[in-house]
Amino acid sequence: xxxxxxxxKHLWFPFTCAQDIVDFPPKVIVRGDGVYLYDSEGxxxxxxxxxxxxxxxxxxQPRISDAIRTQLDALEHVMMAGFVTEKALExxxxxxxxxxxxxxxxxxxDDGSTAVEVAMKxxxxxxxxxxxxxxxxxxxxxxxxGDTLGAMSVGDIPAYHNLFHDTFKSQLYADGxxxxxxxxxxxxxxxxxxxMESLERILAEKGESVAACxxxxxxQGAAGMRVYPAKVLTRLGAACKKYGxxxxxxxxxxxxxxxxxxxACEHADLVPDIMCLAKGLTGGFLPxxxxxxxxxxxxxxxxxxxxxxxxxxxxxxxxxxxxxAAACETLTILQELDIPASLGKKTxxxxxxxxxxxxxxxAGDVRSIGMVGAIELVADRRTKKPFAAEKRIPFRIAQKALxxxxxxxxxxxxLYFVPAYIITEDQIAEMIExxxxxxxxxx
Length: 443
What we know:
single chain; about 450 residues; alpha/beta; Aspartate Aminotransferase, domain 2; 7-stranded mixed beta sheet; 4-stranded mixed beta sheet; 14 helices; about 35% helix; about 15% strand; globular
């Protein structure tokens, strides 16, 4: 056993093998500054993944810190039942000003999973009021929507979800838009989004029992940053509209400028019925999420006490004013920086650096959109054969990169990059160069 093991004996780490804590002791991070994190031994690391995609403006952004301090001196929290804070009110108005105008009502919760849970409960209650029997959801293979039970029921990543699918609610799954390994055997440059034919078949056969279709617009994140074309969203939206099925856009990871638009659905001019937001909403400072719906959906929950039409859902820290203050300042900075429009030149440089990864023999696919990039590693480029899981090739590469001062993290056989928007071109070049070196040393 490592001497470090006693340090962590009381902690249970997420998505981490227990033996890895012994063999690769977690770094104790004591400070952040921009795109960098510093550990207890003084070593600096370039955070290439935005600390699980939340740090969109960099660590310890001073204006967000100041906004939280100011609010802390006034009020830390009050329940949002019969009460509301000025910051929660301000944030609702600020969000409404940048959301599609059809999305007018905002329900606060704590994180991406809870935003999805709220969306599912709204969809079930609303859809069954319109027509009894709509009790099922349809989602896409490769989808990930969080780790609470409802959210997991609509997720489809076997390592995360299979055990729970066998025990809890079973949903419907249509083919996901995995362009590198297209389920319809098409090329994304010339396809007509044939991957959505399976969704259309499901809705034609079982649409009367479906409350909503949930999806990650433009990028399936946890599946390996699977970037797909906007025509997929267009076809998905049309199919749901045809069969009267609500659409739930899970913008938790890709909202607030990550894909080159403020919200990823904008690539297809698709306005969903329900949208889920979290992660970058507070700039990575505090937990906060929002589930946003069309006014017509909200109206189905309106009535007096005797109507029983309220949404029986809430969280202890719903609308927390500290988190709302962080979110308000985050939105102010995004607007002052003209995000995402101002990222155009940086995005082009980022994509050119990513394209240099094609020169690696193990590069099966290199994909990107906006400030998202990924490389899928394969043992054989011709057959697209993946590396054997037991070799842990991506994990070993990530450890090499960490030794060199860059934080990347594998998703299966995929290494990905989701840096803060403030990253410089020199830092992007360093991030990609270290990744190349690390891949070369392991493969």
